[in-house]
Fold:
Amino acid sequence: MESESYKNNKTSTYLAEIIILKSQIITKYEYYAKQAKKEGFEQINSIFLETLNQEKNHIKTIFRLLKGQNPEVTMVINSSVIGTTVENLKDAINSEKEIVSKIEEYNKVIWEEGNKKEFTKLKLFEQISSFYIERFMKFSSNIENGTVFKKDKKVKWICRKCGLIHESLSALHNCPGCEHPQAYFEVLAENY
Structure:
């Protein structure tokens, strides 16, 4: 069955529901990014912004799959209180878990209806959400354990503003290069 034949099945409704869920997530992540910045967690701010932009691309892909169809959807809006960065990370974990759960549920029907392309795209987005969950859990744990700016062994820290690299157990309180506060340091990722 091709995408054009969604009208008499559940695929278009399920795709629209995923769009709504991801739209809610985008809005929350924008607020959560600002809160992380306020608390001095520049890297977490950046991760929330990066994630919300990736979520926007997921929505764009799903819109393309709908091919101009306009399914009617009734859903409950999951409102959240903007809390501390740890609370926001935990809410983000729960939001991504909800996406994973919905995709698993919806994909059974989408596959049965013969929409393999849609099934595959959502399966990929499910894997990406699982990655987000892992990453948010690590950040939450780092804050709770006081290891955002301090590690058990020497690591290379990089200033996100000027690129200064410093090797130590903890990030500098202020960057000697650009004088930005500790919030702008993160562990250097050498993944190239």
Summary: The two ends are 42 Å apart (CA to CA). Residues 150-187 form a domain with the Rubrerythrin, domain 2 fold (CATH 2.20.28.10). The CA atoms of residues 36 and 45 lie 5 Å apart. The mean pLDDT is 92.
